[in-house]
Amino acid sequence: MPDLAFASARALLARMARREVSSRELLELFAARVARHDGALDAVVTLDLEHARARADAADAALARGESWGPLHGLPATIKDTWETAGLRTTSGSPQLADHVPRADAVAVRRLRDAGCVVFGKTNTPLFGGDVQTYNDVFGVTRNAWDPARTPGGSSGGAATAVATGMTAFELGSDIGGSIRTPAGWCGIYGLKTSYGIVPMRGHVSPPPGTLSAADLCVAGPLARDASDLDLLLDVLAGPLDEEAVGWRLALPPPRRRSLRDYKVAAWLDDASFPVDAAVTERLQATVAALRAAGVTVDERARPAFALADCMRDYQRLLYAALAADYPRKTFDAFAARAASIDPDASDGFSRFVVFGTVRHRDWLAARETAMRHRAALRDFFREHDVLLCPVTPVPAIPHDHSEPMPSRKIIVNGAERPYFDLFAWISIATLGYLPAVSAPVGRTREGLPVGVQIVAPYLEDRTAIDFARRLGEVVGGYERPPGYVE
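Request: output the structure for the sequence above.
Response:
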């Protein structure tokens, strides 16, 4: 039975369809693993086994009658605690929402349930999903299964940990600052940041519960142990809101290529403005070498027509404005007063956080126009290339650091201190560009920490990123079980 816990979602669904294992048996397997392993990890923070057992039993009974609820029939899974779940506590890591029990599911959660998923718990996240690490005052600190002294990343840190350790079949994450890609990379699993706008964000917290509008840049996406599961879950999640479906449908194109060697690959593995640690570079270069050995042509000189430093700055202008929209009025006013005394061209993390977070609407519109120009440059780039490979983050999983203020934290890159917010640099390309990107595992550092590569594809060509990730996994990397959690 332990091997089942690490199987792909597709494999588990096939086993259930053949009546080799039941939904209830899978649920009990995952629940037992949570009971056995989660005390040391703090990944799964809320359980609802009573209702999950009833639904799993109903799924098994329906299957026995020859009925199918959908493509996820009877598959047990957990959900990141930023997503509202009907009848199941949703806190987003906030003490103010510690007892918040939604009456309705988020749209994405409802789609999973309608497809037959058995939701049995929630996974940890930083306060309102606002950090590259996962900890909060409600549930505490989530630890990386590969090294408990390090973070699994954030904000989908609990989600990635649960998937990596076989405590759930898959997860539903969200991503505005690498919140799917970074935890996937640091935990050695697959994560898909979808194209902006194709999966509804309604019911995601933040913004506050009940909000109908969606934040700029923020997307939903699945985390899984197998790249093919991303495609399965994308089919379930993607599509317009009900009120939009009256007039349009989503038809994502198939992958651009039919074999790995047919892909036109560009690789941007380092940059003077945002250097990458040698431990990560070694694995990325090995990945490029493996692709070339498999007959793939990889262009390491090709670049979109913009500098990474400019992309990062323009991303921060929109990111911090989106995040500050949810600040309490008193906090926002204090930041706005502080911003008036700061040089608008200042480049340190705290100054940018304050200035960009309190911009006037006129300045936000100018930032949006700049972002559109980045997107145009990326469209031109992907006329000549199918995918762009780049780091997810400049370093492997970092040690826990909860010091405040957050912008003053540091990371160590090649022995030198770098700003904490450098962790956002490489994910900014896809996020500012509204592009799909898969974080795919490509092996481990000499210290044994997972490394991910970011596979960026053209807008709405999510299936190209997924297909390349799947084929890449046959050549290098792929999911590995954390050694302390095999049994």
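The first strand starts at residue 44 and ends at 47.
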